[in-house]
Amino acid sequence: MIALNRWISGLSPVKRYLCAFLLGAMVAAALPPVNLAFLLPLSFTVLVWILSAASTKKQAFLAGWWFAWGQFIAGLYWIGVAFTIDADTHAFLMPLPVIVLPAFLAIFSGLATLATHMTGARGLSRILLFTGFWVAFEYVRGVIFTGFPWNLVGYSWSVVDVILQSTAYVGIYGLTLLTVFLASLPALFGETETPRKTAMAAVGGMIALFVILAGAGYVRIPAGPVASFDNTSLRIVQPNIQQTDKWKMDRLLEHLQKIVSLSLIEEGEKPRFYIWPETAVPYYLTTARPLQRELAQILSPGGAIFTGAPRRDPVQQKYWNSLNVLGANGEILDIYDKQHLVPYGEYMPLRPLMEATGLTKLIPALDNMSDFATPDKRAKKVISVPGMPPARALICYEIAFPWEIAPDRPFSWILNVTNDGWFGNTSGPYQHLAIARTRAIEQGVAVIRAANTGISAIIDPYGRIEEKLSLNQTGVLDGSLPMPITERTVYARFGEMIPLILTGLFLLSGLLLSRRNPKNIRKSS
């Protein structure tokens, strides 16, 4: 491995950047749905060597930037598919999500490698610092400009349930921290200044830790299914309406009739509750009294329909992407308005600036964009319906933000309605499902997920999928609501405090270790 490190160091900066780009694309292959997690040690090990070969701050930054650009192009290409739905209007903007957005997101990884380089640390201390800075800037990526915490490396364990259970203690960022550290440690075998015994001890220690995590996860997961709440029979409806047709005015009624017909399929006992996807009702349900009464006819006494539907205030002319709960008496029982909107998808950021500079006139697609309103910060996040325990409602990608899940009020399950039909048959819906499963484990509650084109699922509090409807499948999913674990998880009690402390400990340990071993510090440039 020393010879390989020397070969990497001997490459020209441009060739090293190209290598970093390809390694980053391999990281995307380690994530859902490909899940080739064994590629992570190769990717991060060689990235550490490329970073060690950097002789300037610019080279150090570009090492991480090119790596992450490759990762995000390969891992987020599916966002561009949404721009083909109305190709005549939006296709020319496709480079923005496919090329420009990954280039912007890659800045944070570039800052992580730059910060590592500036410490001048070598050997184990450099890997500790690299891991700490990597996760620290992943946090920044997750919050800045409304945030986009998608495709964290920790999600590569989504096919290994026993390891994924560790998120109940350290969250997805904590698991990402441990994963990046483990994947980077083999770089020590390519460094002459690191004794082989030290490298073997570090790698062996981390492997032992993951074996312990796997054992703890195995013990944590019960052998049988989780008990369900009484009298909570439910039906998830997946209509599989293609996005190209969804908002055609002459087909709106047809789409709604399809959802109703699927809901009325006679399969076993009639469910008490119905779960429909995001914007399943393509009308303003809260102000359409006749429609409320019509839809309520499919319900048994004490039942309810949980459905996505746009909502409007006809006086203020405001609109919300909402989740409505319709009761058997034909009245709206509860409402949740989406609070974390998608930039450029559900609203246009900096609209006054865009209009003042004339950009909206140059790009008609932006000029014609209507904004959803953002609810007040004090707006409710937990919905309560008679016969069902309280639920944390989340619409679409809101479920990707782990620190936003737990509100002040307690909840017993998570309801996630979404429409992944924008992204076709790509990796996006699979990544979204992996995120939903992880939130279930972190909070120790079930996730009921209804998606227009899939993947809909009943997920138990250990992240296990009890039942699901595959991508692009039309049908219904019958089941009942799994109960949460007996006590709140460690992560649910303390939230991001735990992974943040771990990240700080990695950075502090790396700094202290580098000071104890001055020979392992080089002058940064």
Protein described:
- By secondary structure, this protein is an alpha/beta fold.
- It has helices at 2-10, 13-30, 39-52, 57-75, 87-90, 95-119, 123-143, 161-164, 167-184, 196-220, 243-246, 252-263, 289-296, 351-357, 359-362, 364-367, 428-443, 490-494, 497-516; strands at residues 228-238, 273-275, 304-313, 318-327, 332-337, 382-385, 388-395, 413-418, 446-451, 456-459, 465-469, 475-482.
- It folds into 3 domains: 2-221 and 493-520, no CATH class; 228-339 and 374-482, 4-Layer Sandwich (Nitrilase/N-carbamoyl-D-aminoacid amidohydrolase); 343-373, no CATH class.
- It contains 19 helices and 12 strands.
- A 6-stranded mixed beta sheet has the order 5-4-3-2-1-12. A 6-stranded mixed beta sheet has the order 6-7-8-9-10-11, with helices on one face.
- The two termini are 26 Å apart.
